[in-house]
Structures are given as C-alpha cells and as structure tokens.
Write a structure and sequence with these properties.
Blueprint: H1 17-42, H2 49-78, H3 85-108, H4 114-136, H5 144-169, H6 182-212, H7 221-246, H8 249-276, H9 283-308, H10 323-352, H11 370-393, H12 397-425, H13 430-435, H14 440-449
Helix pairs in contact: 1-2, 1-3, 1-12, 2-3, 2-4, 2-6, 2-10, 3-4, 4-5, 5-6, 6-7, 6-8, 6-10, 7-8, 8-9, 9-10, 9-11, 10-11, 10-12, 11-12
Length: 450
C-alpha cells in the first residue's frame, strides 16, 4: 500500500490520540485476558474467572477496538465530520472504567457492585452509539459498509441492555418476575453481542478492506452473495436471538441457518477477492486467507448443530469444536489484521501526509517491521490451527496448550510491532497516549518548555 486511497477524506478524522488510545486499551485487555486464561489452565484464578476472560476478550479487546475503528473511519470513509470528539473520548473512559471494575468484581466475588460497573459500561456504549449514529445520519446514502455499521449500532444497544439486566440479576433476581429464564437471556445476550454487534461490524469492514487491499471489485456472483448476506445475516441474528430468548426452537433453527448461509457468502466473497488480487502477497493477506477458511469451515460445521439443537448451551457459538474457528480464526484475525492497517494509517497521516511531494516519506507498510509481522502471522496461524484441531478431534490437552502458547507469542509480537510504529514514527509515547496531559513524559516536556 503505497499511499492513502484517493476516495477517503483524512481531514475529517478525529485527533490521532482518540483511535490509538482505544486500540491500546483494547490490546491491554487482550494481554490481561491472556494472563487470566493461563491462570485458568493452572487453576489459580479465583471467582468467576471464565466469565471475566470472556468479557476481557470480547468487550475489552474486540468491542473497544471496534469503538476506536468506527470512530476513526466512519468520518474518513463517509466524508462527514465526527459528531463529537469529546464524546469519543468519554465513551472510552466509561467503558474502560466499567470493564475494569466489572472484571475485578467477578474475580473477587464482589457481585453486589456488578450493576454499578455494568451501568458505567452501558452508558459508555450508548455514548458511542449516539456519537457514531449522529455521524452516520449526516450521510446522504449509506453504502454496504455504512449499512452494516448502522445495523451493528442497533445490536450494541440491545445486547448491552441485556448485559446490564444480567448484571443486576446477579444480586437482585429481577428476571424471576417474568416468564423467561436467566439462561435464555444469557443465550440471547451472547447471540446479539457476538453475531449481531461484532460479526456485523466485521462483515462491513471486510467489504471495504477486503476489496481495497486486494485492489479488486465485487462482480458476478459476488453481488448475489452480498445480497444474500445483507438480508440473511441481520434477519438470521434477530431470529436466532428471539428463538433463544423465547425458547422457540424452530425460530432459532431458521435464524441459525440464515446466519450460516450469510457466513458462507462472506467467506466465498473474501476467498474470491484473494484469488483475484492484483498486488503482492503479504502477511496481511495471509490473515484474510485464514479468515475466509475459518469462517467458511465454522459455518459448514455449525449447520447440523443449529438445525437440530440451536438452544443447547454447548452450541452457543456454533457446532461442537468450532469456537476457536469463529472467535480466534475469524474475529481475532480480522481485528489484528485491521489494526495492521489502521494504526500505521493513522500515524502516517498525522506524521507524513503533509510532507508528501516535498520530501521522501515512507509508505504506510514501511512503518512496521515486515519480518516481525510475518513472524506473528506464522505464530497466530499455527497456534489457531492447533487449537482448532484440538477442539475438533478431542486430542490431549498438551496440543491445546502448545496452541495457546503460540497464539500468546503471536499477540506479544504484534504488540511489539505496533509499539515500534509509535516509538519510531509518532510524537506520542504509549504513556502519553493513554494518560494524555497526566503522563510523566508530557509533564517533563511542559517543565522543559518553561
């Protein structure tokens, strides 16, 4: 990628610190989740450790990264100014504080404070929905990516509301008053979160990034598959969530099959774009190849389970042994691959775009270490493959452990690479990025200036 595509308007993006702060908070949550996961394997994590791990991964890493990416790229791609930069800063503070307290309460068994921190998270997500929703409202005609983002905002509203109700129900059994079980609400909450908010956003991003970074266009069967996905996915998620909430198995089965059909459509489109690509293959494309294979495999393996038992707790995220294919092989690889685009892009625009044409400037892909990117791709691909095989064939736990270690090393390599982008090309250190004016580096700079 030699330059910024001409169709984007970088003058409308928020300050560099806004999206990058989201990404580093998300990465911190991912590293913390990795430590909790290791502790769970060793049996040393207290309290509700597995629930804490799920929230660190899906809320702390995936959702916070989505918040930062949407805040950055909706104005850039849509050509409209962000509704409020202050709200973009506020949303992260609320979600980060709420999540930290929520996870600590789960680990320490202090369940009485879960509604407090859950409420703080809820407000943070609603601020995000309002801010990005008002931004999208300025667009005259939404394209396929913007339509997916608008749908995901609706899913964010609903799943966070369900989550807050569940947090309250830990200490005050409010659900007992109604003809719905807590288990059903949990199933609907997870469905709306993973397949509604997260996967809808992932699909929207892939339509934009998958074509841009392969230098291809949707054509032929791609157009028909896109139509299938655009209708089938949101309708399927809604039916799956309603069926699970109301304990209606036929409705949930129909919804699940539509979700799988949409996933196959997206996987096929992405595979076709990779086969037609007109640029040199890079580790970034390797990540997209893993996504195409993982998403398609997940869908095919999930069809039998959701056709027969969509309400089973063991089939919450798909068929038996498919969790890592969806969560890591699809969602995880899209998030990591997207950050390889977004972080260097944001830094490049603020550091080098004004110098273009006046002096030699690096390409965006030159900002990170290509060998380290290839290494983390190899670690993540091999680790994910081992975890997927361990899930599917029920082999010894040692194979699962090796896969987990490889994935962990890949995450560390990715974090080192992204930190090097900031250290070598940005005016902001990680500390000043996260703490702003309160960072020691910023304070020393102000003193030196005086």
């Amino acid at each position: 990628m030699a330059a910024i595509p001409g169709s984007v308007d970088t003058d409308l993006q928020p300050p560099m610190t806004v999206p990058l702060r989201h990404f580093w908070v998300g990465l911190t949550a991912l590293l913390a989740g990795s430590l909790v996961g290791i502790g769970l394997v060793g049996g040393v994590v207290p309290g509700l450790g597995r629930l804490a791990l799920v929230h660190l991964f899906l809320v702390g890493w995936v959702c916070v990264t989505i918040l930062g990416a949407m805040t950055q790229f909706v104005p850039v791609w849509s050509g409209v100014p962000l509704h409020s930069r202050r709200l973009a800063t506020l949303q992260l503070a609320l979600v980060a504080v709420g999540l930290t307290g929520f996870v600590a309460a789960l680990l320490l068994g202090a369940l009485s404070v879960l509604p407090v921190f859950g409420g703080v998270m809820l407000v943070g997500f609603w601020v995000f929905v309002y801010n990005v929703g008002r931004t999208l409202a300025r667009v005259d005609r939404l394209d396929v990516t913007e339509r997916h983002f608008a749908l995901s905002l609706g899913f964010f509203l609903v799943f966070t509301t369900f989550g807050f109700v569940l947090a309250v129900d830990f200490t005050r059994p409010v659900l007992a008053q109604y003809a719905v079980s807590r288990s059903n609400v949990v199933l609907a909450h997870a469905t709306l979160a993973v397949f509604g908010a997260v996967l809808t956003t992932v699909y929207g991003a892939l339509y934009q990034l998958g074509t841009m970074f392969t230098q291809t266009e949707l054509h032929g069967i791609d157009t028909s598959l896109k139509r299938i996905e655009e209708v089938g996915h949101p309708v399927g998620v809604a039916l799956l969530a309603i069926g699970r909430f109301a304990d209606w198995e036929p409705v949930a089965s129909l919804g699940g099959l539509l979700v799988c059909l949409a996933a196959l459509s997206v996987g096929t489109i992405l595979a076709r774009k990779l086969s037609e690509m007109r640029v040199e293959w890079t580790p970034m494309h390797t990540r997209y190849a893993v996504v195409a294979a993982s998403l398609s495999s997940w869908a095919l393996l999930t069809v039998p389970a959701w056709a027969t038992e969509p309400l089973a707790r063991t089939h919450l995220l798909g068929g038996p042994g498919t969790t890592h294919l969806l969560v890591l092989g699809t969602i995880g690889f899209v998030v990591l691959g997207t950050l390889y685009h977004v972080v260097p892009f944001v830094v490049w625009v603020h550091r080098y775009s004004d110098l273009l044409g006046f002096e030699d400037v690096p390409m965006i892909d030159d900002l990170y270490h290509s060998k380290l990117a290839a290494a983390d791709a190899a670690l993540l691909v091999s680790g994910t493959a081992l975890l997927a095989v361990a899930d599917l064939v029920r082999v010894a736990g040692s194979l699962r452990g090796v896969g987990g270690v490889l994935v962990g090393l890949g995450v560390v390599a990715f974090a080192v690479n992204m930190r090097s982008v900031l250290r070598n090309h940005s005016q902001h250190s990680v500390g000043s990025l996260l703490l702003g004016r309160y960072s020691p580096t910023r304070a020393r700079a102000l003193l030196d200036r005086e």
